[in-house]
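Entry type: protein chain
Record version: 2
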Amino acid sequence: MCGLAGIIGTGDKSKVQRMLDKIRHRGPDESGIFADENITLGHNRLTIIDLYHGRQPIKNEDGRYWLIYNGEIYNYQLLHKELKNHIFSTDTDSEVIIHLYEELGKNCVNYIDGMFALVIYDSKKKTIFIARDPLGIKPLYYGKTKEGYFAFASEIKALQEVTDDINEFPNGYIYTTENGFERYYSIPQDPMYFADVDNIINGLRLRLEDSVRKRLIADVPVGVFLSGGLDSSLIAAIAAKYKNPLHSFAVGVEGSNDLKNARVVADYVGTIHHEFIYTEEDIKKVLPEVIYHLESCDPALVRSAVATYFVSKLASNYVKVVLSGEGADELFSGYHYLKNYSNPWKLQSELKYITRNLHNTNLQRVDRMTMAHSIEGRVPFLDVEVLRYAFKITPSFKINGREKTEKWILRKLAENYLPESIVWRRKEKFAIGTGTSEILNKIAESEISDAEYIKNRFLPNGFEIKSKEELYYFKILKRFFNVDSFIKDMGRSRSLNDNQIYA
């Protein structure tokens, strides 16, 4: 996991160094810059694979191609074996990418299994290739500088060092000098799979176990976030099968449901469990830093980001990689509002919509809060094979029964791994389960009057602030950023009436 920054069109190292300094937290272990008259590429490295080699920017054998890359490629060892015509100087997944590009050009992305944002420069042709993973697990932004150069960076705070033209690089896309932006991935529209429940569960089990097993690969310690909810508990239970000892991490206010249920799961699956209990004063103290790293003022994201910030900080004392349960609610219909869909085809369409937009919601939250503490977050539910299989399952198996039980098929799978009290625990948003939501709402109410909210509800650019809580976070966000440059494209919750959907 790393931080990228660069400018195409100039060899100005000083500007790129300023950009890198803003995202040092993404890669505190090593830093490097490559420049010629046409480009400057910068990279901060968090060492996960091959700890003592693989500093970036990294070049191919003859120095023609240069790569900077943020992410993790889970099939890099298999690809390494297939790339027999190349001389490797490291055991990193990054070097696999550059040699794969030599062989396949832009089609290399179709063979990569993982999360990534990458840039490859051809110093002979003076061309550029940029790609972002299918779901946007890893962030990337771009914009034009006032001189007309093309700049890019992993986070907005770095890009705003050189421009206020802020655009998000779209997930599932590549960019080439020759053709501009091209989509290479869309969520599959496979036919629904109407087999019996046992067969569906077995197919899901095989894919999810494979996904978790791949994401345990690292040359550093690996742990799991554990809220005691269905999603993180299932990931923890599977991970514990393949890694022993396994560290787990839970946070919340004193007496919160997440802390209590996480202890149950940790005892059941046998992890080395760690907790951090925080207070209202702790929340007030870290809130500006949370919003600075999150780069958003959306209430649902901020609420959950606070808890994610604390659990990432806790985990950073013990591990460098963590597995998390994000994505299950989108794939298997976990949010309460989804029960209102009586038409299964419209439900399927909504699930695909919120999955496509995860890069602006929960994936942004997890990436920013983990990287704020220089650890790497991995999301097994969003493996492309798990995703493909999930969207083949008919929606009637996702919300099922007279009670309209959410994630029903995933709960049936979890019966093989977890105690019944966890399997059938009612969905609680992370911010609520940790006890964070009520505290933040109270703080915002005390800070923003009705009159101030009414006066500032609509920004000059037409952007609507939906609540006093959002206005409170917006004011903090403005301390750090030129918010006008990206506020309209900022990730926000799905519902106008319930801004906690993505919590």
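Comment: The mean pLDDT is 94.
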